[in-house]
Amino acid sequence: MPTDAPSSPAPGSFPSHDLSGAVLTVDVGAVRTNYRRLCEKAGGNPVGAAVKADAYGTGLAQVAPALAAEGCTHFFVAQPNEGINLRAALPNAQIHVLNGALPGTEDIFTKHRLKPVLNSLGDIEMWRAHAARTGTAVPCDIHLDTGMSRLGLPTKETDILAADPALLTGLDVGFVLSHLACADVPDHPLNAGQLAAYRAAREKITVGDDSLAASYGLYLGAEYRLGLIRPGGALYGLNPIIGMPGNGPNPMAQVVRLQAKILQVRDIDSPQTVGYGASHRAEKPARIATLPIGYADGYLRSLSNSAHVAIGGVLVPVVGRVSMDLITIDVSTLPENACRPGTVVDVIGPHLTADEVAAAGGTIGYELLTSLGRRYPRVYTDQTPPGPSADAP
Ligand SMILES: *Cc1c(COP(=O)(O)O)cnc(C)c1O
Questions:
Q1: Would you say 270 and 283 are in contact if contact means Cβ atoms under 8 Å apart?
Q2: pTM to 2 decimals?
Q3: Which of 141, 180, 256, 369 has its CA 20 to 30 A from that of 126?
């Protein structure tokens, strides 16, 4: 694991005809760097990529080919539509659909060569019928629930499957996976419990390859690194060791940078209030700057009066409520010439990671990234040299 400080994303750049006053820069090279770091951490285990929800809001069409160029062959999406989009970008990838297949969609999976993750005996029966109908072995994965109670075969169904291997007739099972519920809390007893349940199930159900750990699970310890690793968040710069005792800096490179230009700066007196609901009241005369970004851009309303932004590396507070299209920040501590209309402000970036901004709003980086807006332009950069496996099939 690299011990250096997390690298900053490439400097953002506003399009030459900037109409929105905000820009999202996605450093695709940082995603590739993160994939390499995760492969290193995984030792010899293969590493896939969770690219559901438009690659966690960063852009599937740009990110997935970059991961494929690094040698990633297994991609996990949630829904078949995401798989169809991904198939258009990556003709040769293995595409796994975590939510599985709804009855009636079997032929769509076959047409686009998508693998459903079968989540129940009912799913398995449906896929067995599909195999019988098409007269071919149909590719799929199987998800065993070991403590998440969300998707996957419950223990009872796992036991039924173990007792009757004929239930898998006609199925070409790739991975038998399970998902950890508390991997971000390393000493949570459910981690060891799920690992034990998974191992016990795999004694009985021996088809396919293992897959258990995602981003956090990869950092839980060697015993959790079984078969294919399926990270998502860490690829996009979220910290996979956030809850680890004595954790060092985030080992992942930062991927997203959201910047906005100041629209207006105003001096206010005390006691004057700022924004909807008058929820911020100036204790003394203050200088307030307004930015063209709001909850319609994924800047969550829960960040009202709690988040910070950075100007020239200096953090200043968001004051007042987040509006649909605007936020207000208190720039009283900065020299007047450091914040004028047009001054560029980092909303998410090197000084304020998605994890940190999300925490200020009472949520997680995952939600912040997948909420990123569609209204401001996106700039994709890639300054990282190609990896050693860049020409892998
Ligand atoms: C989303 C998801 C992943 C990826 O999880 P991260 O925490 O983003 O690494 C892996 N497996 C399953 C089943 C998932 O739903």
A1: yes
A2: 0.94
A3: 180
